[in-house]
Design brief:
Number of strands: 2
Structural class: mainly alpha
Number of helices: 4
Radius of gyration: 26 Å
Strand content: 5-15%
Shape: rod-shaped
Strand order of the largest sheet: 1-2
Oligomer: single chain
């Protein structure tokens, strides 16, 4: 499991500071990208093998519509699975955007701290 954020306790334990490791977020975004790229083959293989039902439902299944219901369920499942790569890519992009925002916030906060420390010196 990746550690993305941590809480640093101070004082009574009721207050804490939230910290984010930009490198960890960037690594996680890369993992999302790799997983997204690797899904096309397994989704296609699942779709092909699950569609080969043969006589699994028999004559009764054909008569009561079970095979058609299965086909519709399979189509919907494959369609939903087909969205997963884009969802993972999108999540990776948002993680990288968060890295930029956290880095910019840290840089700004450090600038204010340095300015405040400089102002306090004679």
């Amino acid at each position: 499991m990746l550690t993305i954020a941590s809480v640093f306790e101070r004082g009574s334990g009721m207050s804490g500071q939230f910290g984010v490791d930009p490198d960890t977020l960037t690594d996680l975004a890369g993992r999302f990208d790799r997983e997204a790229a690797g899904l096309a083959g397994p989704i296609s293989a699942f779709s092909g093998s699950a569609a080969e039902i043969g006589q699994a439902f028999g004559l009764l299944g054909i008569c009561d519509g079970a095979s058609e219901k299965y086909r519709q369920l399979l189509e919907n499942t494959v369609r939903a699975l087909g969205h997963l790569p884009e969802v993972l890519r999108s999540d990776g992009e948002r993680l990288r955007l968060n890295v930029t925002h956290y880095t910019d916030s840290d840089r700004t906060a450090l600038g204010h701290l340095h300015a405040a420390a400089s102002a306090g010196r004679p």
